[in-house]
Amino acid sequence: METAVNKILILDDDIGFLQAIKFYLEKSGFVVRTSSNINEAWEIISNYYPDLFIIDILVKDQNGYDFIKQLRINKYFSLVPIIVLTVCGMTQDRIQGYKSGCDSYLTKPFDSEELLILIRRLMVRHIQTLYLNQSSSINNNIYINDINFTPTEQKILNLIINGLMNKQIAVKLNVGVRNVEKYVTRLFKKTKTTSRTELVRFALENHLTM
After folding, report:
1. Which one, of 165, 147, 160, lies nearest residue 208 by Cα?
2. Which DSSP state fits 82?
3. Quick one: fold of 141-205?
4. pLDDT tens per residue, the chain (210 residues)?
5. How many CB atoms lie within 10 A of CB 35?
6. The listed CATH number (1.50.40.10, 3.40.50.2300, 3.30.1300.10, 3.30.43.10) that belongs to domain 7-131
7. Which residues contact 58 (CB under 8 A, 6 or more apart)?
């Protein structure tokens, strides 16, 4: 099964919405596949391993809650983050969503920047969980001794691992966003990674946090 990073599967029967959100997320650096029904979604994930699901619980005559439950008992997707994104905003709907196994519940209309931040935070948390589980059972992790970070680079790396975005890091460190972007670029170069998800994965795997 394919395991590349930054992959998202979106399940929604609103074709116009699928096209719009796919464009937005791809522009933000993600690889996105879409599906308008649950059967098609299962076909897609038979050879496409998403790092995160975005699911509308109202998909034609199918039950999105049941799809989430099935994902949670599937060995490949039991830990993959799931965001419910739907027009159903009643408290009972939210409770059912969380009971089914979703990690977060957003209602339409939604703020696109909020969704983007949520996606990145859930992906970071997912990677942290995977490597914590791995380190508890495997003792042969690789340590990288020839990578040296400046104090500022190390601070920014730690904040990225904690899920903070560039604007949030800039505020926390009292520096400009462009300055943060330069440091993030340096981190990519030093670790030979190309995305925040890869950077976090690499840092956790090689114990580069302090």
Report:
1. 147
2. E
3. Arc Repressor Mutant, subunit A (1.10.10)
4. 333 347 899 999 999 999 999 999 998 888 999 999 999 999 999 888 898 999 999 887 778 999 999 999 998 898 899 999 999 989 889 999 999 999 999 998 888 888 998 898 888 877 776 665 555 444 434 345 567 888 999 999 988 887 777 888 888 899 998 999 999 999 988 888 877 777 887 887 777 776
5. 20
6. 3.40.50.2300
7. 13, 64, 86, 87, 88
